[in-house]
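pasting for ref
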Amino acid sequence: MAACGIVKRIMIRVVLVSAAAVALSGCASSWLPTSFDFMLPSSAVTAELRVESEPPGADATTSTGANCRTPCLLSVAASQEFSITVSANGYQPQTIAVTPLPPMEQREAAGSAGTRLDPNPVIVQLEPVPPPAKKPPAKKKSKQRAARIGAAG
């Protein structure tokens, strides 16, 4: 009979320890974050920006430092508004403001959430630099006027 008492106490301890383990494991997981986004800096939010120009082959540089030669696809920090300047030799540079837009709710529900940019793509029509203005030809002094000035002096 004494063996039954020992077995009974051991079983009670096993059940109590098992119940405590189950209860505590539920508490331990509740404090863990479901997402580790807080560990990433806000500038880690990126988006793809398509840049095209006419003529192609222009240099595209963002205010954040990213650059490429058009047509191109840039991975840009999309945490705040930035600008992109497109330039080519013989053409006037153009600067365009790009604004990040919040993800659409439908895209979030579908699991393809991402930051959108406006405008995207950036399409730039570069204008040629106007030729330098020609100076009007200098007026020639007439021989008669030069003769009058010479005679007066």
